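worker-3 :: picked Probable nicotinate-nucleotide adenylyltransferase
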Amino acid sequence: MPHVEKGMQVGLFGGSFNPPHAGHALVAEIALRRLALDQLWWIVTPGNPLKAGKELAPLAERIRLSEAIMRDRRVKVTAFEAGRNLRFTADTLALVKERNPGVDFVWIMGADNLRDFHHWQRWRQIALTFPIAVIDRPGATLSFLSSVMAKTFDYARVDEASAPRLARMQAPAWTFIHGPRSPLSSTALRAVRQGT
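worker-3 :: tokens ->
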């Protein structure tokens, strides 16, 4: 896990990053700016239980490519889940919370993930562990109104103008952040590489 100090505001941005691309970098940049983060942990996961059967590039390659695409010193590319055999986000967040008292974390995800968030293992627990910032993605803008998570935690939605204070809020708390969107996706990039 990257080093942090008490009182810091830290974003957690996890994914398979298979491959990482400019759309991921844009989400990270928006999160750093709009959430007033001291750090952002770019967490390269060893796998994704919801994408079982899909071929993943080696973890070391995904880490290397992530470091190459994200040059901001506040971004810490890490794959600490692999060394602890963590498969589910809920377990990762519980460990981060336990190991880093006094640090204010916020979970960051693209709006395309909000649509299927209720399929994640113990998704309610995730929402109750740390505040969540959902960053707009093409074709997913309305997910903040229609998703199961958005409806379930409607009472905990915070106005976007409060985003700089989100990490310090008690979970459940979440916001939807509008902004520039990249049309890139890892799925499309893999398809191009495979010539489909």
